[in-house]
Amino acid sequence: MVEWWVVFLEQQRQLVPPQLQNKRQSERRRKIRTHKCAFRVSWSTWQREATFGSMVILPRPLLACFALLCVFSVDVSQAADESPAAPASKKDGAPAYPQDIKVDVDVVYLPGDRKEKLDVYHPLGVAAGQLAPAVLYFHGGGFNDGDKAKDREKSICSELARAGFLAVSANYKLRKMQGQVTWPRNIHDCKLALRWLRDNAARLGVDPNRIGVMGCSAGGSIATLLAYTQASDGLEPPEADHTTPPRVACVVDFYGPIDLMTFHDMKMFAKTREEAPELYRQASALGYVDKSDPPTLIVHGLSDETVNVEQSEKLAAKLEEAGVPHELITIPYAPHNFDLRPLQRDLRPFVLEFFKKHLSAASATPAS
Q: Per residue in 38-94, pLDDT tens?
């Protein structure tokens, strides 16, 4: 049975004189040639197609829908073919922890009922009875965001563990609401993580004299603060015991803000630089550099629009002035927020060799 609206449309078409029909068809062809098939999104758009030679040009909305359908079909077919299914993550939507590495997840390291925890990645290739070097890692996120178990953090800590280092990825206090002050609680947490690693070194099979620190973005700022500050600088956590704070053997800073006086206003203070310049100076690792600081590796992308490369250049110049062994690696076209394997360059040879050199048994000095 023919639908009534098909019969109606055919009747309406027949009422138009042939001369007018030819005129309308000529006008349509002219518009197609003039506007390069820039069809309007209408019912007629979906009924017709314009053909030039052997190439068929379809309206953009139809092409977009077709592309989405293709992508969805590929994803579904790939997911159906995967057997067995990929291991589930601790959190929905997040990648799973590596299957070739033993990872202790959500280990308590802070006193009280704090939600911030840490993950411990146990090293591969360490002989029985042999103590391993360790790297304490801190995530980025502008002191307001981030997590110990995001893609970048898992990738970096996994690479460290596969290279024979025990890697610890720690969460710390973050600003989560307007007006909330998280400094210096955040640096106190990170210093407590370092004390926890030193105090648990024997149980973890770690040499307490061979501990390095590393961080990305805000985590790089934290890592350098841990490496350059001493008890006399007034940043030790109030709940820490009276033992001498541990000293790290080396530090790796990935694109961290080092001089907050030339950075932007930080929400963790709930005050601007004009209102509280002393807080910004206190949280700037640049002001603590001296000749006793450990060897430092700095990595920064030249296309970083979040933390300008000048921050890392300032740190390199200050370390040079103080006579501290250091190296600055700049990566052309690299943006902010990359791990050890950005598209522009594989950084594993540089970072892993740096840690192997400065965390070797021969280079170890007694821990504080």
A: 433 333 333 433 333 334 444 555 445 544 554 444 343 333 333 333 333 444 455
What's the distance, Cα to Cα, between the start and end of the chain in Å? 92
- Whole-structure pTM value: 0.75
All domains of the chain, ordered by start, with CATH?
A: 19-81 (no CATH), 103-363 (3.40.50.1820)
Q: Which two tokens stand for residue 234?
A: 């007034």
Maximum distance among all Cα pairs of the chain, rounded to whole angstroms: 101
Task: Quickly count: other Cβ atoms within 10 Å of residue 262's Cβ.
Answer: 15
Q: How many residues does the chain have?
A: 368
- Alpha carbons 6 and 9: distance in angstroms, whole number: 5
Instruction: Indicate the helix (H) or strand (E) that contains 252.
Output: strand 250-254
Q: According to the 3-state scheme, what is the secondary structure of 315-341?
A: HHHHHHHHCCCEEEEEECCCCCCCCCC
Q: What does 107-129 look like in DSSP terms, one character per residue?
A: E--SSSS----EEEEPPSSPPTT
Q: What is the token pair recorded at 126?
A: 């360490």
